[in-house]
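Lab notebook: predicted structure, single chain.

Context: the supervisor wants predicted structures on file for every construct in the current expression panel, including those that have not yet been purified. This is the next one on the list. No modifications to the sequence; it matches the entry in the shared construct table.
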Amino acid sequence: MAKETKDYSKYFDFSDAKIISEDEHSKKIRIRGREINIMAEPNHRKEKQRGKEDVQVLYDNAVPDELKHIGQGKHYIVYTFGCQMNEHDSETIKGLLEQMGYQATEDRKEADIILLNTCAIRENAEDKVFGELGHLKHLKTEKPGLLLGVCGCMSQEENVVNRIMQKHGFVDMIFGTHNIHRLPQLVKEALFSKEMVVEVWSKEGDIIENLPKKREGMRAWVNIMYGCDKFCTYCIVPFTRGKERSRRPEDVIAEVRDLARQGFKEITLLGQNVNAYGKDLKDMNYRFGDLMDDMRKINIPRVRFTTSHPRDFDDHLVEVLGKGGNLVEHIHLPVQSGNTDILKKMNRKYTRERVLELAAKIKAAVPHVSLTTDIIVGFPGETDEQFEDTLSLVREVGYDFAYTFIYSPREGTPAASMEDNVPMEVKKERLQRLNKVVNENSLRFNSRLRGEVVEVLVEGESKNNSEVLAGRTRSNKLVHFEGSKDLIGTFVQVKITEPMTFYIKGDLVQTAVAVNG
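Prediction complete. Output recorded below exactly as produced.
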């Protein structure tokens, strides 16, 4: 049976809302006894537009002196849903809160501010957030002074903001992906006005440098660009994250050098599509391959990047990755489908042949490379034959691993208006068949490592057994082995004894000095 589509109309009924005041800066309304200060609200039509105005790079101090003690003696929790970009945004949010005097806690009852940093990619991520809000409502009743906020990609959607204003009046703050740097001012506004504060910029703003970040562990994420201009028909990201804008190379390089000085062992360069890096930098001819070449010269042992788009993966980048050094042998390259017609419907702007050609080039340049990918099954109109093309592509390219998803329509995307005509039982059956092929690949490639000695960056204890340590190889394979806890954060040599599908087991050979790129 086809899934029932959500009726969003009930979230747009503001007949019982009363406008209290309105000027060019904001609008105050009252809904069901709660006053709401709308400083800016999401607008899907504006989010679609790509402005011609230049993006400014600002180096201001994000937390004014008068707001540096507002959280003194108070505690915060940030819950993160979604991708690495959201994880990295949460590091910035935590950094800002700590500069305001707040301290981290894991105890909800101790928290004075709780923020949900949300994801809009799939419907189940959205459902999780509203489920979480249901639990937090009771906490808010017990502790009325608690500040509750929703931020991130979901906040960029009109229907979500309207739903919160209508049905979740206990929420105190809603802000989006473009104005995280405004968090100190929004917290102040929510604290002192006692109103719900809504500030969601529909158009991306400037690039704000020097934002504080709270990083943990020995691995760090570094944003190199924001936004996406690809407009794949199934994806909401170009609307929630805005147009592509690259950070200045000198700012990225300075941040990575600083992380190297702090002793970080691995960095991951982040962007919705890192391969488009530099296209918008009009005053220089400097692209992602150039940035990766500069990363090789920085004294940090491992450099990764995510996520890539096959369309912009050029020969220069392949050549640079072939130089090795601290550039690791793992490339995540989302393909989404193995059929050219489906790729065209998805607006991916490459063909099956292009993917095979690119994979061959990468394998020739980077020996022992691990290729991983993302795949959607059951896209509108996908036939059995077209799905078979995806299976054969996975076998031909030889992906080590794939994140696989059943297609689900996202409100506001072009694909949402296509007929979702692949029955759910067919989607599930295809997903199972796809996962079987992917798992066979994973086990086969992992089995080749039996008896090999690999370099592992030790990340911590295994989730399932505190006696076992877990870490990753340069090619991003998860390794479990026995060893003492003081090895966490170091590089060790491990001999592989038992390859499995999702991880590999091994024996510690010796601790090794951290390698330099």
